[in-house]
Design a protein that fits this description.
By secondary structure, the chain is of the alpha/beta class. The protein has 11 helices and 10 strands.
Amino acid sequence: MKIGCMATRVLLTVDTELTWGHYARGLSWQENFARSFEAAGVGVPFQLEMLEQYGLKACFFVDPMPALIYGIEPVRRMVAPILEAGQEVQLHLHSFWKDLAEGKGKDSRFELTRFDPDQQLELIRIARALLVEAGAPPPVAFRSGSYAADDTTLDALVALGIRYDSSHNGSHHPWPSALSLDPALISPVGHRGVVEVPVGQLEDGPGRLRHLQLCAVSANELRQALLHAADERHPLVTLVSHSFELATRDVLKPNCFLRRRFERLCALLGAERDRLPTAHFAELDDLPLGGAATPLPAHAFRRARRMAQQAWSNAWYERSL
């Protein structure tokens, strides 16, 4: 589909993974899958239903590295329903799974940037091969777990023919998001041979940024950031979520506050599809690079309202923790 030149494309990205915590507690892969992927009925299957209801596109960054511990089956079970729903699978990578598979236990390295250049190249090569083995098309985009990427990471992506990276997160810069880019950069840019697609940001106060993650900003902040991007004619805005993000932290029940936030986001993107069309990485060949784009300016009342909402949500939905 050709996008009008005045539209601001939206990358709705979902980091999709099995988690360290469930593994460390000795859960089986089936239990880890149930809590990380299905997530109390508000995980990926629910999210796919909502995307279909509103006619939206999303990119699911799937981490295949748990296959080194559990075998390929849980990764296949993540990939298949996403592709069947017509959504996109790209490459995610949490490096600690490799160290766990080699018996390092608590000494496992959680940041890809703790590995030397040759090791990073090998880790990404392994992850790509596992993702394809699980049934995904060869990936064209990458996001490092915890946004832990540096210029060495991009050099590895170039060597492996992966065109896009989406690890630059200004609110997590310079660690663990360690690319040599301006923290306030939110517009796609060519960097070291790849197209860097930064995570969206808003200003949270003087000298502070907050990334556009579903659980990190309010529904109103998401709405205002998206409308700001459209009004300012940004080429692209990138949102982040996780497969388990709409559940409580123990992943035993839905967090209805976050579920409604996701539903409101889908409704907004459905209503504003002409100005804010959702897209897949595979559709970004004509993406303009290096354009000017600034985060939504800080607003004290909007920030205070978000903090109050988060306090209420934590008190109500996380009180058992």
